[in-house]
Amino acid sequence: MSGTGRFDGFWGALDAVPVADDAEALYDVESEEGRLRRSNLSRYLSLVGEGADTLLVAEAPGWRGMTNTGVPFTSMRELGREYLVPPAPTAPWEASSRVVQAALESWQGALPLAWAIFPHHPFAAPDRLTNRTPRPAEVRDGAPVALALLDALGGAAAVRVVAVGRKAQGALALAGIDAVAVRHPAQGGARQFTEQLLALDH
């Protein structure tokens, strides 16, 4: 289900990331929801990963978007027909996903591939329908996944890394990855995010 070939290292690194009690592993093959998200992520990698020369990196999955679909910056509202539909999503849409996908509709080059530096969903226990900032240790644990994804796309020399927000940029720096930052689309940043992202188009 996770595919073979260029993304093998990515899947191996993803499956090795520890899961704290207040984090949710999104791609666990032991659960039906995890297998659905894994299938969707595999589909996304095959659709977008082939030609991507830009890696768009967020901080962590949010409970309204990626946690439902398994696809970065994609909530139920943006989930295309090529993906499996989760039977019991926790939310119909996510503001950040909507802004990112709307901006990418105007992207002229090969679509950027999106990811989160910490691949599990961190929540404020005991409520899974919340988001929290990943701890520095969690960022370090997730870093090999981002590095494996970067390698699968051709390496740092071939791929530009763009952080969505300063927190993501700082998390990438902890992982030893240099990234240009664009404004996070949340909390009134939608217009600035869109302008800064599209300014990077080529």
Write the layout of secondary structure elements.
Layout: H1 8-15, E1 23-24, H2 32-48, E2 54-58, H3 66-69, H4 95-104, E3 113-116, E4 121-122, H5 136-152, E5 160-164, H6 166-174, E6 180-182, H7 190-199
Parallel strand pairs: 2-3, 2-5, 5-6
Antiparallel strand pairs: 1-4
Walk me through what this model shows:
- The chain has 202 residues and is an alpha/beta fold.
- It has a single domain (8-199), classed as 3-Layer(aba) Sandwich (Uracil-DNA Glycosylase, subunit E), CATH 3.40.470.
- The protein is built from seven helices and six strands.
- The strands form two sheets. Strands 3-2-5-6 form a four-stranded parallel beta sheet. A two-stranded antiparallel sheet has the order 1-4.
- The protein starts with 7 loop residues before the first helix and ends with a helix.
- The model has no long low-confidence stretch (mean pLDDT 93).
In angstroms, what separates the terminal alpha carbons?
Answer: 33 Å
Range of strand content: 5-15%
CATH fold-level name: Uracil-DNA Glycosylase, subunit E
DSSP summary: helix tally = 7
User: Which class of secondary structure composition applies to the elements?
Assistant: alpha/beta
Helical proportion? Answer: 25-40%
- What's the level 1 CATH class? Alpha Beta
Low-confidence stretches: none
- The CATH homologous superfamily name equals Uracil-DNA glycosylase-like domain
Q: What is the general shape?
A: globular
Look at the structure and give the mean pLDDT. 93
Number of domains: 1
Total strands: the figure is: 6
User: Which CATH architecture?
Assistant: 3-Layer(aba) Sandwich
Q: What Rg is obtained from the alpha carbons, in whole angstroms? A: 15 Å
Largest sheet: 4 strands, parallel
Spell out the helices and strands N to C. Answer: HEHEHHEEHEHEH
Provide the spatial order of strands within the biggest beta sheet.
Answer: 3-2-5-6
